[in-house]
């Protein structure tokens, strides 16, 4: 039997804790926030599950992970169909025939493709090397200007020319009239919210949980008292930023309770112009098909901001400079960190979705426990 300390009660930490306890190990979970579940934390207000850290839609191609997460919640059939608001003009996302029709009046896939081909000619066949080139190559210059450039540069706080191409490849481009934001065969929102998933994962007598507890306040003691540590905080902070800071993007959430039933008619509306300071507004009740108080709705505006020490590091900025720096920290982790395992979005410095975090935690479980 091993005595584990898990740092961070997010999805990675909770998955590891659940699997370790199931195998008869003792686990202590510490979490610096005043609640469990990390960024997937949801809280019920006026009968509505409020996503406290931005819209979370579970989607995966992996049947095993879909089945795995169903141990802890039932899911509704929510399909993400966000819309973009560009100076009051509304477009469907992801980029599909509805978008192309509204923008260009084209009706058939062939006409849409011809228009995209005409616009991507500005690249002269060059292989896309950054987000701007990748976007133009996928959908042409009009969509890049109206729906991508402003949003992206607000979100990441830098020119789209300085961002990696993979970020925009997260979004499908379709020559069909299909507004589903994801290609994955499995998608939904847990009925009753996400927090229950982590609650159930941690509901084992072999697991104790302590919130409002920061690892760095008693680091030496923890390292001495536990056989192994699973650390899901920032890897650069763990090593006291000895090679310098990795970059993150932070966010500020502004949540409002409104005395009306329906504010925007959709769960997610992106504001893709450069001027509007927020990137999106989510209206939480639409994740659950109009559940909740009929006279109230709750909306959250999401303002991107530069991360400084002490802010919440929501997104790793995986450009080549940061990835190279992460590699140095990873080498340190592999050679000098003794009994510490690093995991999750911050511990592995990866733009992981929830299903990928569960997948990564299960890989760690397999290596460590099986
Ligand atoms: P976290 O949830 O960040 O958990 C890490 C925990 O460790 C945190 O609770 C933190 O407080 C704690 N911690 C850190 N340092 C310390 C310390 N020193 N001591 C104690 N505790 C510490 N994924 C999807 O699949 N679909 C989506 O629609 C989606 N939308 C997203 C929207 C936003 C705005 C964001 C930011 C992310 C989104 N994600 C989405 C990604 C998803 O949130 C992550 O994949 C997942 O939550 C990561 O889990 P984690 O355990 O790695 O990290
Ligand atoms: N994006 C965009 N316009 C949009 C939505 C997304 O340009 O209306 C770009 C932007 O660069 C963003 C990336 O696509 O960072 C990935 O979008 P996704 O919705 O996956 O972002 P997340 O939900 O992870 O913030």
From TrEMBL:
Keywords: FAD, Flavoprotein, Isomerase. It comes from Liquorilactobacillus ghanensis DSM 18630. GO terms for cellular component: cytosol. Its cofactor is FAD. This is UDP-galactopyranose mutase. It holds the Pfam family GLF. Gene3D superfamilies: NAD(P)-binding Rossmann-like Domain (3.40.50.720). One of its GO terms (molecular function) is flavin adenine dinucleotide binding. Coiled coil: none annotated. The keyword Transferase does not apply. PANTHER family: UDP-GALACTOPYRANOSE MUTASE (PTHR21197). Residues 146-351 form the UDP-galactopyranose mutase C-terminal domain. InterPro entries: UDP-GALP_mutase (IPR004379), UDP-GalPyranose_mutase_C (IPR015899). Belongs to the UDP-galactopyranose/dTDP-fucopyranose mutase family.
């Amino acid at each position: 039997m091993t005595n584990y300390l898990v740092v961070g009660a997010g999805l990675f930490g909770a998955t590891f804790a659940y699997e370790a306890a199931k195998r008869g190990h003792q686990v202590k979970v510490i979490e610096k926030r005043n609640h469990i579940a990390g960024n997937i934390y949801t809280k019920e207000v006026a009968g509505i599950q409020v996503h406290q850290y931005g819209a979370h839609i579970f989607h995966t191609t992996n049947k095993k992970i879909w089945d795995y997460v169903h141990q802890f919640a039932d899911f509704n059939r929510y399909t993400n169909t966000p819309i973009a608001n560009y100076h009051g003009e509304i477009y469907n996302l992801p980029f599909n025939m509805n978008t192309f029709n509204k923008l260009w009046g084209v009706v058939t896939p062939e006409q849409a493709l011809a228009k995209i081909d005409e616009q991507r000619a500005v690249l002269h066949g060059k292989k896309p090397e950054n987000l701007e080139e990748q976007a133009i190559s996928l959908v042409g210059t009009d969509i890049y200007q109206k729906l991508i450039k402003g949003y992206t540069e607000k979100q990441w706080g830098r020119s789209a020319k300085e961002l990696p191409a993979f970020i925009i490849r997260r979004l499908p481009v379709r020559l069909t009239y299909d507004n589903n934001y994801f290609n994955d065969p499995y998608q939904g929102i847990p009925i009753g919210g996400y927090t229950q998933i982590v609650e159930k994962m941690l509901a084992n007598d072999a697991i104790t949980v302590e919130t409002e507890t920061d690892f760095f306040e008693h680091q030496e003691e923890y390292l001495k008292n536990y056989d192994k540590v699973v650390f899901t905080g920032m890897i650069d902070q763990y090593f006291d930023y000895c090679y310098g800071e990795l970059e993150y993007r932070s966010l500020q959430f502004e949540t409002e309770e409104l005395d009306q039933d329906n504010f925007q008619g959709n769960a997610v509306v992106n504001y893709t112009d450069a001027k509007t300071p927020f990137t999106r507004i989510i209206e939480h009740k639409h994740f659950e098909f109009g559940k909740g108080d009929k006279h109230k709705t709750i909306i959250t505006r999401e303002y991107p901001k530069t991360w400084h020490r002490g802010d919440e590091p929501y997104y790793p900025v995986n450009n080549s400079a940061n990835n190279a720096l992460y590699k140095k920290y990873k080498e340190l982790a592999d050679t000098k960190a003794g009994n510490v395992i690093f995991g999750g979005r911050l511990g592995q410095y990866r733009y992981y979705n929830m299903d990928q975090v569960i997948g990564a935690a299960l890989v760690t479980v397999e290596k460590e426990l099986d």
